[in-house]
């Protein structure tokens, strides 16, 4: 299976939605663990990289594309 490409500052969609009703998360820390913040209620979650990659559905907004447009 191909590894999913994501980066710091990307807004991603996970397979399961957050209880607040939002399914969009912003990646705010990368390393062995990935910290992401809910875009709806600002709740922060820390997941191991392997679990994050399993649950990642797609990248909604790439931070690289936003930087290149400015």
TrEMBL record:
InterPro entries: DUF951 (IPR009296). This is DUF951 family protein.
């Amino acid at each position: 299976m191909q590894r999913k490409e994501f980066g710091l500052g990307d807004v991603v969609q996970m397979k399961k939605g957050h209880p607040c009703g939002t399914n969009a998360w912003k990646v705010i820390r990368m390393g062995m663990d990935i910290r992401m913040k809910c875009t709806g209620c600002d709740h922060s979650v820390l997941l191991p990289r392997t679990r994050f990659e399993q649950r990642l559905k797609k990248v909604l907004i790439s931070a690289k594309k936003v930087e290149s447009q400015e």
